[in-house]
Amino acid sequence: MAELSELYAEMHELVAEQVLEDLRDGDRKARQEAMQLLKQNNVTATAAEGSTLKKLKNKLDFSSLADKVVPLTVPPSAS
């Protein structure tokens, strides 16, 4: 019988392959599963210069708008 760590490694590989296949097939649920799998395995990405991830990061950078944000205030109660 294979060692437990070998079984876990095989299970992990099969799950990862299935999630990737589902993503490629356009399964919308697979996106959440893939994100969870990456998170659970501490997988991170670095946005390399010129990469799509870097372009997305630049589009999502709202730091230049910090001085234009109006703080929300709670209206006085009508009591």
3D architecture notes:
The protein is mostly helical and 79 residues long. The protein has a domain at 1-45. The chain contains 3 helices and no strands. α1 packs antiparallel against α2. The radius of gyration is 21 Å and the shape is elongated.
What descriptors fit this protein?
mainly alpha, 3 helices, 79 residues, single chain
Sheet/helix structural class? mainly alpha
Tally of alpha and pi helices: 3
Strand count, sense and barrel status of the largest sheet are: none
Which residues form runs of ≥5 with pLDDT under 50? Answer: none
What percentage of amino acids are in beta strands?
Answer: under 5%
- The termini sit apart by 73 Å
Mean pLDDT: 87
Radius of gyration: 21 Å
Helix and strand run = HHH
Number of strands: 0
Q: How helical, in percent, are the residues?
A: 40-55%
Overall morphology: elongated
SSE topology:
Layout: H1 4-24, H2 28-40, H3 52-59
Tell me briefly what this model is.
53% of the residues lie in helices and 0% in strands. The protein is built from three helices and no strands.
